[in-house]
Amino acid sequence: MAGAAMMLLTACRKNNYYIDGGLSGQSAAEMQMTVYDFLASRADHQFDSLIKIIDLTNSKTLVNQPNITFFALNNKAVQRFQLNFKPDDRQGARPLDEIGKDTLVKLLGRFIIPNMRISLEQAVKDGQKYYAAVNGDSLYIAGKGGGTGVSSSLQTSAYRLEFTHVKIPGTDTVQFVGNMQTHNLVTANAMVHVMDNRASFAAGFKQKYFR
Hints:
Elements: H1 2-15, H2 28-31, H3 35-40, H4 48-56, H5 60-63, E1 68-72, H6 75-83, H7 101-109, E2 112-113, H8 120-126, E3 128-132, E4 138-144, E5 160-165, E6 176-186, E7 190-195
Parallel strand pairs: 1-7
Antiparallel strand pairs: 1-2, 3-4, 4-5, 5-6, 6-7
């Protein structure tokens, strides 16, 4: 019985590498990788679409620049972006190589904060703080959670980091808010936070703005 329980625990830890606590699953070798190499090396291939965007736009230098905070999006998030191009339900997602590179680079830059590595702990300490993304867009990063019960001083919720792209009049139509499924992954050049399965690489843009 104890052996079965241990096997179940091991399987859960393996499958939930990117659920919070993921930092404890990183090896020393992974922490020495660049963002690009770290994402490309994942055995579960969940960042393959993001890697393809980086390759199509020759943006490896952008994501590997020193001292950044990077918000990684998985394949599902990129697919949601591709589906923005569907005129109707009879057509599938538009291939990434048929989407304008300028659009891809603009959106990729929205998920990079330059010149600082923002950890979950720092975000909680700051509460809510404005940052400029690498492409000049406005972002708010907020540390949330950790509340206490009405009649108790015990913490009742986990801390979490929230990413908000601030709506720009005349350009964007939706204020995009994203939450993380994993905080504080470390690479050689960045602090990486992985957005959860509700995220979209479209990040607030509507289809009519894509080229």
